[in-house]
Amino acid sequence: MIEVRTAVAPTSVMSAIREAVREIDPNLPVMDMSTQMDQIEQRFLQERVFANGLMSYSVSRRTNEIGIRMALGARSQDVRRLIMRESMILVAVGVVIGIAIALGTSRFVATLLFGLPPTDAMSMSIAMLVMITVSAFAGYLPARRASRVDPMVALHRE
Q1: Which residues span the domain enclosing 153?
Q2: Cα gap 58→94, rounded to integer Å
């Protein structure tokens, strides 16, 4: 694996990198070239799909309850707020547990980090922000779907 750092847009130098590798060794295959941001996006795509599926399942299991709430006068925004609050509580608990584990195991991973302290506040903050953002998007879609439940259809399902 070869890593290249550039001050310009990474996609603009990919062909030059391929050519440089060919000049060094024409038999060396250059296969998967991607930027670090692409790799990060691909990594979080898995979590986003999993979180969205989990929230969708949770909401679909509660269709009857949501229908009853709406039949008793709950507005769409109340249902959306309820689902989002529950999902973000889970995220907050996960973030707190994650920070505790990260701080507790920081001395074990210190040897694997190069030029970065194991308890770097900026890195941890960015990771938390990304996790909260991904989770909020994953929770919003099922919450929006739940807020559009027709009470009569939901009550007839039982």
Answers
A1: 35-157
A2: 17
Q: How many domains does the chain have?
A: 2
Whether residue 67 contacts residue 151, with contact meaning beta carbons closer than 8 Å, is answered with: yes
Determine the Cα–Cα distance for residues 128 and 103; give it in Å rounded to an integer.
14
Same-domain pairing of 8 and 50: no
Same domain, 89 and 48: yes
Q: What angle do CA 58, 90, 84 make, to 5 degrees?
A: 65
The pTM is what? 0.60
**Inter-axis angle of helices 121-147 and 36-61, to 10 degrees?**
40
List C-alpha distances in Å: 87 to 51, 84, 112: 10, 5, 33
How far separated are the first and last CA of the chain, in Å rounded? 56
* Whether residue 6 sits in one domain with residue 54: no
pLDDT digits (tens, 9 = 90+) for 82-117: 989 988 998 899 889 988 988 888 888 777 777 778
